[in-house]
Write a structure and sequence with these properties.
The structure is a single chain. By secondary structure, the protein is an alpha/beta fold. It has helices spanning 13-19, 29-46, 61-72, 86-97, 115-119, 144-153, 202-207, 221-228, 239-255, 257-277, 300-311, 337-351, and strands spanning 2-3, 53-58, 79-83, 102-106, 128-132, 134-135, 140-141, 157-161, 180-184, 195-200, 291-295, 313-314, 316-317, 326-330. Strands 2-10-9-8-5-3-4 form a seven-stranded mixed sheet, sandwiched between helices. Strands 11-14-13 form a three-stranded antiparallel sheet. A two-stranded parallel ribbon has the order 1-12. Strand 6 and strand 7 form a beta hairpin. The radius of gyration is 20 Å and the shape is globular. The chain starts with a strand and ends with a helix. The relative contact order is 0.18.
Length: 354
């Protein structure tokens, strides 16, 4: 079995070796040192300043998305959400459940988010923009420079879910004036699922987090940040994944996050070129290096099943209205060009009989 998915992804042998070890007791100075280094290395990899705060949650990425909303905003706010798919919709669902007012910029599948579309929301009194930088359900990568400029001219906070963009695409916390950056363990980090992280700007911490009642015990940023000063979490974390994270962040530091981006970009571009040469179609909007959506209407589901059952190659299916239209092929984790040659050959063979 080979994973070409977008989370969990094919893990590296060193990570798998760490995941098989006996877990240590974690309320120790030694584990605290590991956590403090995790914080330092994570902030370094995303271009966050030392004064930024970091929260490590034992939760899926959705848990971190919800935590960001409830720790920073209240019913007195009005938020703007980019809704270009199921993950943009998730931000909307979170705001609806917590009764935080919001408007959406809705992007039907195939539409590109443009500066003109953003300008239509100028001057509307929004507190913040919430965006999944890479809308993973569709593969579209939004222009973070454009979104940052929009927030700056409208005096808005910028909340960025970079769960599937981290490691694949350019992310610079300070350069783009990000206020909360949301990450997770099972994408480009190629770790076990279960840890999500939020990097929080000093201004967001001081102006919002400290003054907002999150209404949650487990997801309260104030408690997590207070505990992180001593390298700990307020509740029992997924210790093993945090040890995996420590090793992986040191690898990324050694490699360089920009080099990691370049290698994934090269792999994605080569794959897309070969796909199109073989007659497959991909969307025209800007794509993340994390995955390639392939348009296969009406046979996407059959392609997914045949790859899985006949070849042991696992791509990412879509749900809902895109279930028979799109499959998504990930470029995250321990995958090499030889793996994509095998995948391409299988896809051609399957297409011939669909």
């Amino acid at each position: 079995m080979k994973l070409f998915t977008v989370g969990p992804v094919e893990m590296f042998p060193e990570t798998l070796e760490i995941s098989g070890r006996q877990l240590p007791y974690f309320r120790t100075p030694e584990f605290s040192e590991i956590m403090l280094e995790n914080e330092r290395l994570l902030k370094e990899s995303v271009g966050a300043p030392t004064e930024a705060k970091t929260v490590f949650l034992t939760a899926s990425g959705t848990g971190a998305m919800e935590a960001a909303v409830i720790n920073c905003f209240t019913e007195a706010d009005k938020l703007l959400i980019i809704n270009g798919g199921s993950f943009g919709q998730r931000f909307s669902d979170i705001c609806r459940i917590h009764r935080i007012p919001y408007d959406e910029i809705k992007l039907p599948f195939g539409d590109t988010l443009t500066a003109k579309r953003m300008a239509e929301a100028d001057g509307q009194g929004y507190s913040a923009l919430l965006v999944n930088l890479h809308e993973t359900s569709a593969g579209q990568l939004y222009d973070i420079a454009m979104l940052s400029e929009f927030c700056q001219r409208n005096h808005m906070y910028l909340i960025v879910d970079a769960i599937s963009a981290y490691g694949a695409d350019e992310i610079d916390f300070e350069k783009y004036n990000v206020d909360v950056l949301i990450l997770s363990s099972q994408k480009a980090l190629a770790l076990s699922p279960g840890i999500s992280m939020a990097v929080i700007s000093a201004r967001m911490y001081e102006e919002r987090v400290l003054k907002t009642d999150s209404g949650s015990l487990y997801l309260d940023f104030k408690e997590h940040i207070a505990n992180m000063t001593r390298g700990q979490t307020p509740f029992t974390p997924a210790v093993g994944i945090l040890l995996e994270l420590h090793h992986r962040l040191k690898q990324i530091q050694s490699q360089g996050i920009l080099q990691m981006n370049k290698e994934m970009q090269s792999l994605a571009e080569r794959f897309r070129e070969q796909l199109q040469q073989k007659g497959f179609t991909i969307p025209a909007y800007p794509l993340s290096n994390a995955l390639t959506p392939v348009l296969l209407k009406p046979h996407a589901r059959e392609m997914y099943e045949a790859l899985k059952e006949e070849y042991g190659l696992i791509v990412t299916p879509n749900g809902g209205s895109l279930a028979d239209t799109v499959i998504r092929i990930g470029h995250l984790g321990n995958v090499k060009w030889q793996d994509y040659e095998e995948l391409l050959a299988a896809m051609v063979q399957i297409r011939e009989r669909l």
